[in-house]
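Follow-up to my earlier ticket, as requested here are the two runs.
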Amino acid sequence: MWTENDDRIEERVRNGLGAVNSVAVNDDRIAPVPSAAAATPSISNLNVNNSKKVHIGPKFVSVTQNVQNQEVVKELSFPKYLWDIVKNSSRTERLSCAVAIMVLIVCIALIVYFAGLSANTSESPIDKAPHEWRITREMWLARPYNYTHTLDAFEPLMLVIFQHTVSPQCSLFKNCAAELRNLQGYFISHYDYDIPYNFLVGNDGRVYEGRGWNIEGAHTFGYNRCSIGIGFIGDYRGEIESHASVTKAQLNRTRMLLEEGVRLGHLRKDFLVIGANYLGPTASPGSILNNALKQWPNYDHKNRFYKLNCEKMEEKFGNTTLY
């Protein structure tokens, strides 16, 4: 029996609105089931590459497209980079940069100049002294000291004894003067007497007055009352690594001092010189200074004053030519 529902189903099929399954439906209570081919697709996400128009089924769909652009940056050389900056800058900016570069160049030149000047100054420091070679107590700022013993009883003297101070060396007047002040302060505070040598010879080649002429020294036990003691600043023991060296200037200035002593009547013309180690138990003045003194014609190679006190020296050699 063909019913009205059958007419409606047929009409829906003709209009393309759907299709029923192959089973005939005669019951109005059973709804027709659409086929899978006629179902509308469900699209949640769609990726589209290099497309301008998209058509999906019977519908036009609005598509959001994300485009990633990659820019290729070409590396420029440093000179071209600077040239691009210059071209893209204003005249005022270029002028400011030029002034800044000139100021930087001037500053670098000044730094190099003064650094070289400082290096030259440190290599050859200025050594100024009140006298070319003869430095008095006043010149090296010695502390005043009251002496009570002189050498009048044995002048003119026949013996000059050499020692070394075993103290830091000094190659400039200001340093030698400071070293003498240190030595004097040490002996005054520890032994309650002045610097023990009559004269000292610095590494700068100058002669510094200690106690001076005609003043009894404290340099060599048993011989202080009848000799002149000369101390060379530094340590002249050849067996130590940091030993001092004897210079021609030191020897020449020492001979000049001794010639002054002869001229002033403090020394005999035939006076003799010797190291303190040949007269007592000491290493002074060191092997280096001893070897230099042994080249002098008036060095006492015979060591004729050994174990003689001042009176016996005067008695034995007072009226005898020493060389």
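Run two:
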Amino acid sequence: MALTRGLNDSEIASLLQSVLEDSNSSENVSESENELLEDDIQSDVEDESLDGNESGENIASVQDPNQEFTTHSDSRIITVALPTLRSKSKHCWTTSKGNSSTRTSLINIVRTARGPTRGCKSLYEPILCFKVFFTDEIISEIVQWTNAEIYLNRRIDNASATFRDTCADEIRAVLGILTLTAALNNNHLSTDDLFNNTYCGTLYTATMSRDRFDFLIRYLRMDDKALRPALRPTDAFAPVRKIWDIFIRQCNTSYIPGSHVTIDEQLLGFRGRCPFKIYIPNKPNKYGIKIPMICDSTTKYMFNAIPYLGKTTNTAGLPLGEFYVKELSRPIHGIYRNITCDNWFTSIPLAKGLLNEPYKLTLVGTIRSNKREIPEEIKNTRARKVGTTMFCYDGPLTLLSYKPKPSKMVYLLSSCNEKGTIDDKTGKPDIILYYNETKGGVDTFDQMCSLMSCSRKTNRWPMAVFYGMLNAAFINSYVIYAHNLISIKKRL
């Protein structure tokens, strides 16, 4: 790293004069089309610490004495004298935004309203909303393969009602018991406590006996076990694949998301044996099944999800993050939406690719500092003032670096074809404020699932996924029910 050179008094005076002339002759016009709110953002990467006075001067010296950086005290934007910047990968960025039309870009115009599709707009009962996601087809699959498992394990001398075959109504009764445990926060109780009239009353014993409930949960199956050896090499998710696809299809076709959506991952807690179980230390459960999903940023409706299957995931040659973004966003291809995601998904090629056919989507997300497309000139320097921002552009792409702390640097990428602007109240870039407003769609959905969860202890990962599907169905059905209820009240 080159040594930092301080500026003498004459250089400072000349630069200050040029800043005053530039500020009087130009206007700071924002081209952002998004409505942004105030929030905090945490850094994604640590950098070298800053010594000396943190407040610094309005004119900051940099690594290369041949490059001139000026800091505008009003906007906290650092600009580079060079017209273009090149990264390690030879990616070319410009330091100023080119002239663009005053008309709003077509890709930033959304013509479809958020809400349930036509078939779901007339559902005003919670049970009807829930049946949208757990359809009769899913119930019949469970009944068929549960009875097959019961037949394989039935003993001749066990002819009592506890060990008989099940039916669709009884499976729905099991789902009702699981729903009730979620609503009453009883999912952590053992079946002995659930079916104890002294402890929980007669809510559960009125439906079925404890032994029958335990028996059905133990033998509940969702696939043909005879086909697993042939399917496992190509699809490790085979034990729940069929009902999962039906469930996700219903999520896709029952709701139209708004203009802002979020992609992130959910971790279904599970500590048993699973070929694609992973460890994420910053998650509450830490061990479990990772499910990347896409949610509406406002209503938190989950309309697509794809399980992460580890090394067996077929990405068709695409990087993992790019594959999940393109596949998860398939229901909204071509209908002009913006995707907010974190640095596990975001990349420069992905942002450019989403602008083209058949995607027609924009992207805003944090980006890792080790990406070779980031030019060295916008990275952290010891003399750079805290709270300053640097922007660079590549057509519709806007890349920024923001320094919230002396040893922290945040990098964000936007493909919304907007000029870099700073919020007057917070001093933060508007792109960061928009990211903070829309980044929590999946996290909030996950939190809502944990607040009303039917998940029970199990040593079978297909049951953990089954419980996760039920939790997702609770939230999605609630979103549709609340939307329809609000709509009918407005008409009255």
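The only thing I checked on run two: The radius of gyration is 28 Å. Let me know what else you need.
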